[in-house]
Amino acid sequence: MHTFITTRYSNHPEDVKNYDTGKLRDHFLIESLFVNDQINCVYTLNDRLIVGGIHPVSKAITLETVDQLKASYFLERREIGIINVGAATTIEVDGIPYQVSHKEALYIGQGAKEVLFHPAQSGETYLYFNSAPAHKHFPTKKVGVDDAEVVTLGSLENSNHRTIYKLLVNSVVPTCQLQMGMTELKPGSVWNTMPAHTHDRRMEAYFYFDLAADQAVCHYMGQAEETRHIWMKNNQAVISPPWSIHSGAGTSNYTFIWGMAGENLDYGDMDTIAPTALK
């Protein structure tokens, strides 16, 4: 076995109000995603999303089933979205190779039996993934930055000039419930997802990268009237329950990957909260 997985349970917002810094980090922060020749992941009971990292170094790594799934293979009742945050590499799906470059995505639908992740020929392979339960098969599809829906929002004056790449959304690739994309902040901008919002119909996970080793991001969570924060470093992820806001501000610009699962595939289904209403 080369897969390391832990389970995180759902949290009631009234309970979270009583968490100290350590307990917040234990429940929501995923600190170590990339371990040599391992798949490292968390199974969260928030919409049963799996959040993980894959780092093949000396050999190819197979996507193997885990006890939490009680399935004969990982994608028997699941779909998975993978975004390459390292060097260009090859991912094989049932014997078919897909060349996935830096910041490109690969969607693999329910029913794929053998998925193999290869080390990069030059540089290091770092693959970030989200996996959600699926009730129907959709075909495997690679999505590059040029294939994505692209939206630029915010302004440098408000410190949130950013470009959003909608990679694995239903207008680009058909999925059961999984949605993933990437947001790049321009130099001089630090705020993401502001104004903040919630969406009770979906949970979300954020993965922060492209952040210098001596910089950090403060991720904001919790209910709008009583927020909490978690300080995060490069290549770390955080779980956002449906009742929680999800926003962040860094000590420099950065990129983050957002992934969602839940009730619908409506990207615009959100309840926005004005900055002046946050407490």
TrEMBL record:
Name the species this protein comes from: Belliella pelovolcani
Its name, as the record gives it, is 4-deoxy-L-threo-5-hexosulose-uronate ketol-isomerase
Q: What is the lineage of its organism?
A: Bacteria, Pseudomonadati, Bacteroidota, Cytophagia, Cytophagales
Listed pathway(s) = Glycan metabolism; pectin degradation; 2-dehydro-3-deoxy-D-gluconate from pectin: step 4/5
List residues binding Zn(2+): 197, 199, 204, 246
Protein family: Belongs to the KduI family.
* Protein role: Catalyzes the isomerization of 5-dehydro-4-deoxy-D-glucuronate to 3-deoxy-D-glycero-2,5-hexodiulosonate.
Q: Does the keyword Isomerase apply?
A: yes
Name the domain of life. Bacteria
What does the record say about how the cofactor binds?
A: Binds 1 zinc ion per subunit.
- Pfam families reported for this sequence: KduI
State the Gene Ontology terms under molecular function. Answer: 4-deoxy-L-threo-5-hexosulose-uronate ketol-isomerase activity; zinc ion binding
